[in-house]
Amino acid sequence: MNPCPVEIHYLRPPDQLTVYRQELIHDDGRVKVTLARAVELREPLHAGGRTILEPGADALWFTFPGAWHDIGRFHLADGSFTGLYANMITPCRFSPGGVWHTEDLFLDLWLARDEATPLLLDEAELEEAERSGALSSALAARARAEADVLMAETRAGRWPPDIVRAWTLDHAKAFLPE
User: pTM score, two decimals?
Assistant: First the structure.
């Protein structure tokens, strides 16, 4: 498939909307793979005491229709793979014209490239969002349940999905025009 632009409207409750522009490079109906080129960040992202994504680095995203999470393959600015980042989100809604909508559920999972056990991130943020009413108790429970499933799947050696392992940054870049 030829790459095509998508706009991902990402709502972080209660009202923080960010629009991410990425290139859709693969869509087989089970997963949509997008490439975020030269990610704009104010400062590097850290997890587990390490830098996991730098300003100007590329990230590959895997969006599974109907899933309550997506997965990012994160890199440093030099292209070095750092690990996998899963956002707990509402299932993405796909509108015509490449416009997608989803809502952040605060919890995230980080699996460093050289680790077997993922880190659960942002539990305090989820609790605060639930306490303040920015996120309903039902959605907070759904986020926790999804994170629990991903943690268990990782421990059992079934996460991440094979397609996430197969799609490296070099593989993704091969789909872009010269």
Answer: 0.95
